[in-house]
């Protein structure tokens, strides 16, 4: 009697998965390579790109039309070139105005001593010399936004500190050295108001001279001294007018 044996199926050779992985990786990389190459080519900067448009000579202003790049000026120091003739004449003309203001202060309040008003103006200029430098501060910051913040803070600090110190110098010398005024309290308030007006005029004159002097950087200290003269003269005029001149019992000689 024949015995039927169950049919034995020879097992299929179990192909390891790691043998198929190199082929799959090769195909996958072949599909991704063109895409990656295109993306890299699109994002890479062009080496032969044309130079950007020339920027302003005195203010670094972005010329791009992208909306995210706002045109914010950045300060650049002017060049050391000869001063234009018109600018030199303007410097001399504006320098005469504080001198005329010293003489005009001697005609106000009944005190005709030019030496006294000149000394009071010099005292106001001396005390306000340091804080007034903040009015003309131009920080060199890499960020335009940071540059604007520093300039705003410096100008605000200079405008707050300069008039009180100029008024104190003018008022103090007038009261101590040239006889007490009729109204000392009003005299200081007048000097304070005059110094504030002189500060505004000094800043305006300084910026006008800077604009006329471009591209020259010469007479930088002279422009600041002219502006400081406006501050001192303003304080003296206010003091002489509001103080009412020296008292009769004060020494006026």
Describe this structure in words.
By secondary structure, the chain is mainly α. The chain contains 7 helices and no strands. The termini are far apart.
What's the quick description here?
The chain has helices at residues 17-43, 85-105, 114-127, 129-132, 144-177, 184-213, 220-243. The protein has 253 residues and is mostly helical.
Key traits:
single chain, 253 residues, mainly alpha, 7 helices, 61% helix
**Total count of helical runs of at least 4 residues:** 7
Question: CA-to-CA gap between the ends?
Answer: 158 Å
Topology pattern, helix = H, strand = E: HHHHHHH
What does the main sheet amount to? none
The proportion of strand residues reads: under 5%
Shape: globular
**Helix content range:** 55-70%
Mean pLDDT: 75
Oligomer: single chain
Give the total of beta strands: 0
Radius of gyration: 38 Å
Write the layout of secondary structure elements.
Elements: H1 17-43, H2 85-105, H3 114-127, H4 129-132, H5 144-177, H6 184-213, H7 220-243
Helix pairs in contact: 2-6, 2-7, 3-5, 3-7, 5-6, 5-7, 6-7
């Amino acid at each position: 009697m024949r015995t039927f044996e169950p049919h034995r199926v020879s097992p299929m050779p179990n192909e390891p998965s790691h043998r198929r992985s190199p082929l799959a990786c090769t195909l996958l990389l072949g599909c991704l390579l063109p895409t990656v190459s295109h993306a890299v080519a699109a994002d890479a900067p062009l080496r032969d790109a044309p130079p950007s448009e020339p920027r302003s000579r005195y203010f670094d202003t972005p010329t791009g039309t992208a909306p995210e790049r706002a045109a914010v000026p950045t300060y650049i120091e002017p060049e050391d070139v000869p001063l234009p003739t018109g600018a030199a004449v303007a410097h001399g003309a504006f320098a005469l105005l504080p001198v005329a203001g010293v003489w005009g202060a001697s005609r106000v309040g009944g005190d005709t001593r030019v030496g006294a008003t000149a000394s009071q103006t010099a005292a106001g200029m001396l005390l306000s010399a340091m804080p007034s430098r903040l009015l003309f501060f131009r920080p060199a910051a890499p960020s335009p936004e940071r540059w604007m913040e520093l300039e705003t803070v410096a100008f605000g600090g200079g405008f707050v500190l300069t008039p009180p110190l100029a008024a104190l110098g003018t008022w103090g010398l007038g009261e101590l050295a040239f006889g007490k005024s009729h109204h000392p309290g009003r005299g200081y308030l007048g000097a304070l108001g005059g110094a504030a007006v002189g500060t505004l005029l000094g800043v305006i004159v300084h910026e006008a001279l800077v604009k006329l002097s471009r591209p020259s950087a010469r007479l930088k200290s002279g422009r600041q001294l002219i502006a400081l003269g406006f501050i001192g003269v303003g304080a003296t005029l206010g003091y002489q007018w509001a103080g009412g001149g020296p008292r009769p019992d004060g020494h006026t000689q």
